[in-house]
Specification:
It contains 9 helices and 12 strands. With 297 residues, it is of the alpha+beta class. Residues 12-14, 16, 85-86, 88-89, 105, 244 line the site of one 2-acetamido-2-deoxy-beta-D-glucopyranose (NAG). Belongs to the CLN5 family.
Length: 297
């Protein structure tokens, strides 16, 4: 869902790592000279490799970004879209004892900053030139990024499909870093950019598989004073094993609870566009895939 503006995040949400530390404070994107030629790079590297070694690299959980290099000034820039309060906070809510409703810190946003950290992208990922654009096209794209950033606000981790087959029904689309990169490429193509279509471009998506979802309601209709108490407590019980900061023992118990709920009881409560949905889960339940989505033609 698109919104008319981006609300200020609740002060309860505190970032473990600050969002966009080297971007300009107002997110401004420098104007390029119209006649400039700007190279566009596809940037990809494992998520959080600095934290978990190459573990996530083996699962091919990749983070995507776009790089730009001006031929006139030789300056270069990175643009990416990611969680304000880290992935876990965008995937599961906080169950705060003082609140009836599960509380989400799930904003995501675009970050634009000068410099491309070549080593970071190349060493365990990739940095590949995909197109050349004019300064004029870049400036138009920058304007669009501002709008996109102000209206598409909430991170969505999951892609929910009916089955793991190519033409399966998509119930819910994710809204994450790779979706942003795909929107940028699409916008550049609309503005006239020609992409190098010989490249194979794969992206990570985290899939859930389910039958047709049922809409359950929103904060007011489920958790409000006239809400459905049974459903409210079922949803909170579902999210409880996903809470942050668990000890190893708690975590192992939680894994069993998650297995019981998702695989044995075939239930997943998805929060999407400010509403809760019941997913009747189906085998293979969950998959992390690194699949091709071609560059625009
Ligand atoms: C998630 O949000 C909580 C509450 O704001 C915060 O303490 C935490 O640092 C955030 N990030 C992670 C990875 O838990
Ligand atoms: C996008 O929005 C975030 C959150 O308000 C802001 O910090 C960032 O600078 C914006 N990015 C761009 C490119 O405008
Ligand atoms: C970007 O600029 C930095 C700093 O000047 C330089 O180290 C790096 O190699 C450049 N990367 C690209 C892809 O142009
Ligand atoms: C690449 O992966 C290796 C092995 O996991 C790690 O030691 C190195 O720091 C990574 N490089 C970057 C730039 O993240
Ligand atoms: C998927 O749909 C496309 C276009 O409608 C079709 O060409 C293709 O054969 C389908 N693939 C499968 C596995 O059904
Ligand atoms: C919840 O849904 C009801 C009816 O569908 C709507 O009137 C209400 O504004 C929604 N509340 C919130 C907090 O989104
Ligand atoms: C409350 O929710 C449960 C589970 O979705 C449903 O079976 C029940 O009919 C609901 N109760 C009311 C009063 O709506
Ligand atoms: C990229 O995706 C294609 C098709 O989705 C797949 O056949 C190929 O193995 C993937 N490449 C890698 C490196 O995983």
């Amino acid at each position: 869902r698109r919104f008319d503006h981006r609300p200020k995040p609740d002060p309860y949400c505190q970032a473990l790592y600050p969002f966009c530390p080297t971007g300009s404070s107002d997110g401004s994107i420098p104007l390029m000279k119209e006649e400039d030629t700007i190279e566009v790079f596809r940037l990809q590297a494992p998520v959080w490799e600095f934290k978990y070694g190459d573990l996530l690299g083996h699962f091919k959980i990749m983070h995507d970004a776009v790089g730009f290099r001006s031929s006139l000034t030789h300056r270069n820039y990175t643009m990416e879209w990611y969680e304000l309060f880290q992935l876990g906070n965008c995937t599961f809510p906080h169950l705060r004892p003082e609140l009836e409703t599960p509380f989400w810190c799930n904003q995501g946003a675009a970050c634009f900053f000068e410099d491309i950290d070549d080593l970071h992208w190349k060493q365990n990922g990739s940095m590949i030139k995909v197109a050349e654009i004019t300064g004029n096209v870049f400036n138009k794209m920058a304007k669009w990024v501002k709008e996109d950033n102000a209206t598409g606000i909430y991170y969505e981790t999951w892609t929910v499909e009916a089955a793991p087959s190519p033409n399966a029904t998509v119930w819910f689309e994710s809204y994450d870093c790779s979706r942003f990169v795909l929107r940028v490429y699409q916008k550049l193509a609309e503005l006239g950019a020609a992409f190098n279509n010989k490249l194979q471009t794969n992206y990570t998506r985290i899939f859930l598989y389910s039958g047709e979802p049922t809409y359950l309601g929103n904060d007011t209709s489920i958790f409000g004073p006239r809400g459905n108490k049974t459903l409210a407590s079922d949803i909170k019980a579902f999210y409880y094993p996903f809470r942050p900061h668990q000890s190893l023992k708690e975590f192992l118990i939680s894994l069993l609870e998650i297995y019981d709920e998702v695989i044995l009881k075939k239930t997943f409560y998805l929060y999407y566009n400010f509403g809760y949905w019941l997913l009747p889960m189906k085998s293979p339940y969950i998959k992390i895939l690194y699949e091709e989505i071609p560059l625009p033609t």
